[in-house]
Amino acid sequence: MITDSPPVKSSSAMRRRSLWIEGVIVVAIALLILFGVPLFLAAIGQEFRINMLGRFMSLAIVALGIDLIWGYTGMLSLGHGIFFSLGGYALAMFLQLQIPEGQLPEFFTLFGVDKLPWFWQPFHSLPFTLMAIVLIPATIAGLLGYLVFRNRIRGVYFSILTQASLIVFFNFFNSQQKLINGTNGLKTDTTKIFGVYAGSDQAQSVFYTLTVIFLVLAYLLCRWLTSGRLGRLLIAIRDDESRVRFSGYNPTGFKVLVFAVSAGLAGMAGALYTVQSGIISPKTMDIAFSIEMVIWVAVGGRASLIGAILGALIVNFARSILTEQFPEIWLFFQGALFLVVVTVLPGGFVGWLRNEGQEMFRSLIGRPRRVMTYPSLAEDPEVEYERQNLSN
User: Fold this and answer.
1) pLDDT of res. 1
2) Where does the pLDDT of residue 8 fall: very low under 50, low under 70, confident under 90, or very high at 90 and above?
């Protein structure tokens, strides 16, 4: 008698199911951060850390973008401070213009400027500002990426070019006192938005909520880009770009697209960080800050989006706590952490949890080690005997 075998779930159905489960988990964590964490911090008398968490979550959006281009595509950018700052300046310029008609921001009068510069004019509009926060960084990254990638510049040369671009932007913004207040930057906490001071508790609560929402959206966007055929192609570009070219694909367009998306995320993060920190200045274009962004991803784990978020939060919270306890030597702790990750945990914390951490847990509960080949061969005593003899 022939009996019908139970239907086998297709890999696509299982993948959709796992993505739905992941989505539910992400939303649950977001709700916990949105409602539970502020209540907990307020209960223990640490309300000031709510704003700190909001700023660090905005930095996690930058880390997602860097993981997208470095972890998945193999492009190490050391100049993401450009795009982060452009997003921050775009929103700060809009807030500076929320004054009675005919008046100029205060710093203009200090330098004898009596007419608003032409490039400030569009920032009277909120819709234009919201688009500029993302599109200006993405456009600049797209143009820079096209010029670089079409000439097949990659690896360390790409990193050097991004850092050189960062220096150019830093020197330009730092010297423009009459146009954007130069070194002093643009303050946002004393400006108004919809009749409310941006630095007030009411506005900061809204910015915190927006940061959580945009962090979730950024994660979902990066997850979508890296989970399908495009994600596999990006990994192929990272591992062997020449073979991708021989397979009939032109990596230039894909790399430009990913670089532009990463820059757009950085611009969004810069805007959210600016309104929660109260100021944007050329200091965010400092070389050290862009290198720190890479450290966050390395600590959390490359090519693991959740690792990029955790790395940004862990490193920044650790820096905050260490500066409170050890203000003079906290940089040594940060350097030691990075050295440990590079030498002992090359896959970051998430990479360790996925591999060595799981094996350690299995050994603690008495489970056999995972077999990476056919179990019948790996567990055959004769095969094990021959393997030991060959190794000796």
Assistant:
1) 45
2) very low
